[in-house]
């Protein structure tokens, strides 16, 4: 008697890449799948978060189609993200407005909703506590949602859970800021590997090695490998950068010149707001550094 073969087509979401296989979540459950060879010929590389069409043969899936993406992050490689939880530590490693602004620009450029998660709030004391508190207030004034947490004391952790409902989220941040610890605090059964900060280097080692979408809080969340630095994509132009600072956008119609880059132009409303302490000086300083970085990259290429 011939062996029974089960064949059908299903739709699903790639939740994990491992050993050349794609684990796809479908309404009927997870299917371990391979990509057809013609994807490589067409320059298509399926990533976590992609919505795909599978052909099932005897419980093995073959990806036939990758649907159009809502958005795509190159680093980490993940697609169709609703929001980014940008995790920055208040201490160990020290709070870095420069790194946070870099993350915010990369996320704003993709038109993904950013939410700032401050971790290790229990470690703050003295002048550092005042500095971080002032920064939190300033980012909230811009319009960013900021949640203060401690995975050690569980303070603020439950404030994260409602944000995940019915969303596909990416959790991103520098190595050692406590991303995996935050997820473990939200769902202890995950038992994700964590690491301590190197006292000599002031940073942690990568404990998350692959991008994986996990069900959490009635949504999906990607715990991503940590980064020590992030480069701006080659396609980002100076004109685009100014749109990634919401407080600049709010004032740009008051600038003397249309298309003002807020650098050396006379009658710039943004520079006036910086001088009047209505815009964070650190944000404007970082903007200037990002401008130079993009200019230097353009000259190199």
TrEMBL record:
Its EC number is 3.6.1.-. Signal peptide: none annotated. Its main location: cytoplasm. Residues 79-228 form the EngC GTPase domain. It holds the Pfam family RsgA_N. GO terms for molecular function: GTP binding; GTPase activity; metal ion binding; rRNA binding. GO terms for biological process: ribosomal small subunit biogenesis. Its cofactor is Zn(2+). Residues 70-230 form the CP-type G domain. One of its GO terms (cellular component) is cytoplasm. GTP binds at residues 119-122, 173-181. HAMAP family: GTPase_RsgA. PANTHER family: SMALL RIBOSOMAL SUBUNIT BIOGENESIS GTPASE RSGA (PTHR32120), SMALL RIBOSOMAL SUBUNIT BIOGENESIS GTPASE RSGA 1, MITOCHONDRIAL-RELATED (PTHR32120:SF11). One of several proteins that assist in the late maturation steps of the functional core of the 30S ribosomal subunit. Helps release RbfA from mature subunits. May play a role in the assembly of ribosomal proteins into the subunit. Circularly permuted GTPase that catalyzes slow GTP hydrolysis, GTPase activity is stimulated by the 30S ribosomal subunit. This is Small ribosomal subunit biogenesis GTPase RsgA. It comes from Exiguobacterium sibiricum (strain DSM 17290 / CCUG 55495 / CIP 109462 / JCM 13490 / 255-15).
């Amino acid at each position: 008697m011939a062996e029974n073969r089960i064949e059908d087509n299903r739709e699903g979401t790639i939740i994990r890449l491992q050993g050349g296989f794609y684990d796809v979540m479908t309404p009927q459950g997870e299917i371990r799948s391979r990509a057809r060879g013609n994807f490589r010929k067409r320059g298509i590389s399926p990533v976590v978060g992609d919505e795909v069409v599978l052909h099932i043969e005897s419980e093995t899936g073959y990806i036939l189609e990758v649907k159009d993406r809502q958005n795509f992050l190159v680093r980490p490689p993940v697609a169709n993200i609703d929001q980014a939880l940008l995790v920055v530590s208040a201490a160990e490693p020290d709070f870095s407005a420069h790194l946070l602004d870099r993350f915010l620009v990369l996320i704003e450029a993709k038109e993904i909703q950013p939410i700032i998660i401050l971790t290790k709030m229990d470690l703050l004391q003295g002048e550092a506590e005042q500095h971080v508190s002032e920064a939190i207030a300033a980012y909230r004034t811009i319009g960013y949602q900021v949640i203060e947490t401690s995975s050690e004391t569980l303070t603020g952790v439950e404030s994260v859970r409602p944000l995940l409902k019915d969303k596909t989220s990416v959790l991103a941040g520098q190595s050692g800021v406590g991303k995996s610890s935050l997820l473990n605090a939200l769902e202890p059964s995950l038992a994700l590997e964590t690491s301590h900060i190197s006292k000599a280097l002031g940073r942690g080692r990568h404990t998350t090695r692959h991008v994986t979408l996990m069900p959490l809080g009635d949504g999906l969340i990607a715990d991503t490998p940590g980064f020590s630095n992030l480069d701006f994509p080659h396609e980002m132009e100076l004109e685009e950068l100014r749109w990634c600072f919401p407080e600049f956008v709010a004032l740009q119609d008051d600038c003397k010149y249309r298309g003002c880059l807020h650098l050396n132009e006379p009658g710039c409303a943004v520079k006036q707001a910086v001088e009047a302490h209505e815009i964070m000086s650190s944000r404007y300083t970082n903007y200037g550094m990002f401008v130079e970085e993009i200019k230097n990259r353009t000259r190199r290429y």
